[in-house]
């Protein structure tokens, strides 16, 4: 399969020119090593993997000798498997001002971040990679949208092919794991089953000390059922057959693995009566669909959870835009104790951009009425609108529009 360019490439290379060590973390199998190995092609960078038991043994036993054999600049895959390397990397960093000498990858974990942060403070930049976005799959990795004005949306619509509901739900159901591109349904199920058994369960035991693997497997499926909803640990625990305390701890584990992310509620001192609960989303909708036993895109599209999956998909694409883009963006949602809600609120440059997400081609535009609640925050409101299944952008008022999902 041909290499798929990643949106993170730009930021990674920029950070590599500024920091002595750059590490890419993320969930298992999202393409971390593939990207760095591609960027290392046609250079003098040494490439090694700690998956090799002989190399890993040398790295742990004699880090100094390791770097005499495998000289920087170097790319080390699965660096968390040889924690003894970090202290030696620190020593080598202090001996040279060369930037980008060490490229590291590691499966996302609390232990890895702590090891790297403690040993290499001030020398390392840690970046996160997610599974493939729709833009990356379509060959537009650098197309990070930041302007939601109607004029900018019209310009995008002329360049980006229209996607109907079948296209959108196909992308939602398939997800974005690079190895799964083009897989049929049977092979996809086998992949996900292997992914859970070979990676997640092993990491749950080895990295997080979870002994009840069957309970944790059931908890995974319960999280999938709660995707797109306000996080209530007691309800989640009841669904999984564990206590609310255990549910809270296991949510943290799934976050640290890069399986789920929690969307924080928008907060402002000027706004009262705000909910404090987070929203739970899966980092890959394909994995969520597998855990929820949606066996095809058609079954998912016509099922009771189709709206939640569309919301999770949009949140994923927005999360990637916010993380991979050059400008700083904060992603939140709004909900108050009067049940008034705004699905997504993007803050960029001090301006708030509110969005509703609707599974409709012609949604009721009255749903933007809650946008005005954000005015009480004292921050200006910018372009937003309703992200939906419309075939083209259409103005709702002077600042808000109907925004086709495929334009994200």
Characteristic terms for this protein:
408 residues; alpha/beta; Rossmann fold; 2 domains; six-stranded mixed sheet; 16 helices; 41% helix
Total beta strand runs: 13
Strand content: 15-25%
| Helix fraction by DSSP (H/I, runs of at least 4) | 40-55%
What is the N-to-C succession of helices and strands?
HEHEHHEHEHEHHHHHHHEEHHHEEEEEE
General shape: globular
Give the uncertain stretches in residue-range form. none
Helix count?
Answer: 16
Largest sheet: 6 strands, mixed
Number of domains: 2
Give the SSE map.
Layout: H1 8-16, E1 21-26, H2 32-40, E2 46-49, H3 53-61, H4 63-69, E3 74-77, H5 85-94, E4 102-107, H6 110-119, E5 124-129, H7 134-137, H8 150-159, H9 165-174, H10 185-206, H11 213-225, H12 233-240, H13 244-257, E6 260-263, E7 279-282, H14 285-291, H15 297-301, H16 306-324, E8 329-335, E9 341-348, E10 351-357, E11 384-388, E12 394-395, E13 400-404
Helix pairs in contact: 3-4, 9-14, 11-12, 11-13, 12-13
Model description:
The protein is 41% helix and 17% strand. With 408 residues, it is α/β, with parallel strands linked by helices. The protein folds into two domains: 8-129, Rossmann fold (3-Layer(aba) Sandwich), CATH 3.40.50; 135-407, no CATH class. It has a six-stranded mixed sheet with strand order 8-9-10-11-13-12, with helices on one face. A five-stranded parallel sheet has the order 2-3-4-1-5, with helices on both faces. The longest helix is centred in the middle third of the chain and has 22 residues, at 185-206. The model has no long low-confidence stretch (mean pLDDT 93).
